[in-house]
Design brief:
The protein has a single domain, classed as Purple Acid Phosphatase, chain A, domain 2, CATH 3.60.21.10. Helices cover about 15% and strands about 35% of the residues. It contains 3 helices and 10 strands. Strand 5, helix 3 and strand 6 form a beta-alpha-beta unit. The radius of gyration is 15 Å and the shape is globular.
C-alpha cells in the first residue's frame, strides 16, 4: 500500500537539525507548527518537500506574514495546524474554534515543546514537540505521519537527541 508521508515539526527557533533534513527526505509534505525562528529554516525545508507553515509567537520579519492557522488534505484526511493550542485536556479557545469550524481529522500544534498525542472533538491531536535547541525541553523531537490511500493514519515519533550539547 502506498502511504503519503507528512513530516511534522515545530519550535525550531531558527535551528534545523541536518539529521532531520535527512529523515524528512522522501516525505510528500512538511507541516511546521510555528516558532520557526528564521526564513532559512523554511527555505531548507522547502528544498526537501512542499511546506505548510503557521506563524508562532516568536516569528517576526517575513515570518510574521504566515497565517495563524492552515489546512491541508492528504488522501482525504483533513489536517489543520495552529501554533498555540493548549493541550488535549485543556484546548485553548482558538483550537476549539478551529476544530469546530474546519472539522479536521488531525490537528498539528506546537508551542509547549512537549511531544503529545491525544484526541479532541474527534480529531487526532499531535504536538511533535520542539525540534530546536532553545527552550526548556530535554530532547528534540519531530514526527512523521503516514496516510494510506484509504485514510488510515500511522505515526512515527522522531527523537533527535538532547536539546543542546552546550551544557
Amino acid at each position: 500500500m502506498d502511504y503519503s508521508t507528512i513530516g511534522l515539526i515545530s519550535d525550531t527557533h531558527g535551528y534545523l537539525d541536518p539529521e532531520l533534513v535527512e529523515i524528512f527526505e522522501g516525505v510528500d509534505h512538511i507541516i511546521h507548527a510555528g516558532d520557526i525562528g528564521s526564513d532559512e529554516v523554511l527555505e531548507e525545508l522547502r528544498e526537501v518537500a512542499p511546506v505548510t507553515a503557521v506563524r508562532g509567537n516568536i516569528d517576526g520579519g517575513e515570518l510574521r506574514f504566515l497565517p495563524l492557522e492552515a489546512m491541508l488534505e492528504v488522501n482525504g484526511v483533513r489536517i489543520a495546524s495552529l501554533h498555540i493550542a493548549g493541550s488535549p485536556k485543556r484546548p485553548r479557545k482558538a483550537a476549539r474554534e478551529l476544530l469546530a469550524r474546519e472539522r479536521p481529522d488531525i490537528l498539528v500544534v506546537g508551542h509547549s515543546h512537549i511531544f503529545v498525542v491525544g484526541r479532541v472533538q474527534g480529531a487526532l491531536w499531535v504536538n511533535p514537540g520542539a525540534a530546536g535547541r532553545q527552550g526548556f525541553h530535554h530532547e528534540r523531537t519531530a514526527a512523521r505521519l503516514h496516510i494510506s490511500p484509504s485514510g488510515e493514519v500511522k505515526m512515527d515519533r522522531i527523537v533527535l537527541g538532547p536539546r543542546s550539547t552546550l551544557g
